[in-house]
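tool=predict chain=A
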Amino acid sequence: MPQDDLDLAHARTDPAALSLMHWATEPRHDDITTRVQSAIAAKATLENAKDMIAAYHDVTIPQAGRLLTDHAARHCTSLVDTAPAMVNRTVPPSLILDASAAT
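tool=predict ok
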């Protein structure tokens, strides 16, 4: 190979090699642990919110889940935001109604 081609190849491989050396092949253990703990906490909060709605409206847990999902959809929020608001009493259970009861 001509020297110019070798210099160009070398110039292109150095940044690629550095990038590969600094690129983690597997997620760090603490990242996985944090994600799993966050998912478990979110699931527990969702279940608590459904229990609160079920008790307040005297409905089953699946019905409470649908009421909560419908409420989140009507207000353009996610369950990740709606469930903690319910559990923290920022949103009272009386506001969680199905669409037919609200109209």
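The chain has a mean pLDDT of 82. The CA atoms of residues 42 and 80 lie 7 Å apart.
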